[in-house]
Amino acid sequence: MPGAFPLVGTMAALQEEHFQGADMPTIDPSLRPGTVTKWGEWVKSKPLVVNGVETRWRILGKYDLVSTNQDGTIGLIDCKVSDSQRDTGQFYSPQLEAYAYALENPTAGKAQSVASMGLLVWKPTHAIGTSVEDYGFGVFQKYIPVDRDQANFLKVIGEFITVLEGELPEAGAECGTCNYLIARNALN
User: Which residues contact 168 (CB under 8 A, 6 or more apart)?
Assistant: First the structure.
């Protein structure tokens, strides 16, 4: 929903801008040697294949930060400004896997190998400054690695596409689509 979280959007944009050109190990020592070389770019994938059949569906998204690693791979980082307990790798894995899929299976250009994915979370902790010219917020920064699970991502997206492309059933206890959606919602 555009404009639903304007302050979070502003803070996330500042976070992305702050790390343009950053050395990856300065973000987190666990990251491969490399440099943030891209930010805020749209990616679009080739059509998704479900059960061996090419669909009309593609992944379209805008990532936050991408590093070019010294070993020729890339790293994908999604910036978050939050104090939520849901800022876990598991919660954001589908979003990051979608970006990774689009980068590894682009509709145009060269495919890239995504070696790492993670969240860069800023949690506002305190106000700083002593005058109108230098007020701001201090943050606690945490990098959360996100494990790759492309097989599960493709399974879930395949199930989702199957539901979208399927017949519209009658609502009720015997409705497979209704039961699927209820079961998926229960996972959150």
Answer: 177
Helices marked H in 34-88: none
For the chain, what percentages of helix, strand and coil (3-state, to nearest 5) are there?
Answer: 30, 30, 35
Q: What is the pLDDT of residue 66?
A: 97
How do residues 78-91 score in pLDDT, each as one tens digit? 998 887 776 677 88
Most confidently modeled of 43-57, 81-95, 155-169?
A: 43-57
Which regions of the chain does DSSP assign to beta strands (E)? Answer: 34-39, 42-44, 49-50, 53-54, 60-62, 65-69, 74-81, 114-128, 136-146
Pairing of strands 74-81, 65-69: antiparallel
Asked if 130 and 71 touch (Cβ cutoff 8 Å), the reply is: no
> In 10 A of CB 127, how many CB atoms?
9
Q: How far, in Å, CA of 53 to CA of 29, rounded?
A: 42
